[in-house]
What we know:
- The protein is an alpha/beta fold.
- The protein has one domain (23-277): Metallo-beta-lactamase, Chain A, CATH 3.60.15.10.
- Helices cover 16% and strands 32% of the residues.
- It contains 5 helices and 16 strands.
- The strands form 3 sheets. The protein has a 7-stranded mixed beta sheet, with no helix packed on it. Strands 9-10-11-12-13-14-15 form a 7-stranded mixed beta sheet.
- The radius of gyration is 20 Å and the shape is globular.
- Bound molecules: zinc ion (ZN) (2 copies).
- Residues 87, 89, 168, 189, 228 line the site of one zinc ion (ZN).
Amino acid sequence: MLKSVIIGTNGTLILIRTTIMNTTITINILGTRGSVPVSGAAYALYGGATSCVSVSCKDTRIFLDAGSGIICAPCAAEANVAVMLSHFHLDHMIGLPFFKTLFDKKSSVAIYGRMRSEKSLADALQVLLSPPYWPVGIHDYPADTALYDIEPHFSFGDFTVDTMEGAHPGGSTIYKLSAGDKSFVYATDFEHNEIVNDELIHFAKNTDLLLYDAQYTESEYQPHFGFGHSTPEVGIRIAKKAGAKRLLFTHHAPEHTDEMIAALEESIQKEYPFAGFAKAGTEIILS
Length: 287
Ligand SMILES: [Zn+2]
Ligand SMILES: [Zn+2]
């Protein structure tokens, strides 16, 4: 944006031209699948890797969740890197041992997680990354690693980070990452109910992009009540009330093939063109 300001001083007009750089957030969808990775031609379009989204601004790069999608992220050696976990269910953690930046001795990685089921982040990593499940611990990787508890509001590099608690077995953290006047809300492993819906509407107010858990269709939801996931219909209601500019569904059910998701997406977009299903490999720029 180029801004011109004219100021009169002692009868002299001064023209000030200021270039105001808009803040740009780059979002890379790396993993979209819920519960367990899937593979094969039937999943090539929307993706088979589990939850991971890379969110970058300037030299800061935050990975939301470390599902198998994080494996395809190149080493982020030059960046200020954090991995922020929504919770410790395996589908959100299984890519962490293969995260390339951990193998770079010049890199530092900040890992954030909240106490879940009386297990701290350190406890959870100790279980996941120790024999007989894995040969080395998190601090044995070449990169410097530091573990942090999640506060409701904090900063990391060029982002401010807000969090709220989602409804999910054992809990889950919903994130809002903001830089300048742009924001992105990551709400996966979220089951709707009246209380958390209102909280999320408030939390996601006017966000540029809401990524929302829509693992189930409406007909699939009832038999899975209490499993901790939601539906596209509820996501649309929340996004509309929040004034979210764009809505993407994620945590696709392992049983949902590209054909099924594409048909669902087509019918939803006839009425709600601002909504769609996240595809792994997609880059979205908020500017
Ligand atoms: Zn999950
Ligand atoms: Zn979960």
